[in-house]
Amino acid sequence: RFLIEKDQLDLAEQKLRDLIATGEAGKPLIQACADLLRKFLNTKQDTHALALFQANQAILKNNSSALFLAGSACYKLGKTVEATEYLGKATDLAPSLPDPYLALGDVYATDQPWQAATCYSRYHDQVSKNRFTRKIGLCKHADRLRLAVKILSRR
Questions:
Q1: Interior CA angle at 83 toward 81 and 88, to 5°?
Q2: CA–CA gap between residue 71 and residue 151 (Å, rounded)
């Protein structure tokens, strides 16, 4: 994690590869891999993030954070089918996490507004339950939430 925090991403990735090659697949290593995925996404290295996930999918396939990040990378790269698959699995593994619902709503927003509205509604429900993220999440994504209310009120 120290290497990731110091933006030594190539070195951090190499260290992760070395540890994974030795068979180390414990929780700290999985978390470090997810942290590196997040850093790649935050630095607009979406292709690199997706490649890292796919190369280590065997140890990351049941980690909701890694699946959310891989789905986000796919969405940014225009791979909506893969994005839907990864984000859907992230919501299945951790239904109380709000961010995968928000990202899944974004994937559906263009072609499937009802699905998008449902996802945004679930995001709202999860954010509302968490007093720490409630104000930030609801204000930051108010436009999507208004869209969900508008679409769902047409039923």
A1: 100
A2: 24
| Residue 34 banded pLDDT, cuts 50, 70, 90 | confident
Percent of the chain with pLDDT over 90: 36
Residue 13: per-residue pLDDT: 72
Cβ within 8 Å of residue 32, ≥6 positions away: 1, 4, 12, 16
pLDDT of 45 over the 80 cut: yes
CA distance 43 to 59: 23
Residues contacting residue 60 through CB under 8 Å, at least 6 positions apart: 30, 33, 34, 53, 66, 67, 70
Half-sphere exposure at residue 91, Cβ-oriented, CA atoms within 13 angstroms: 21
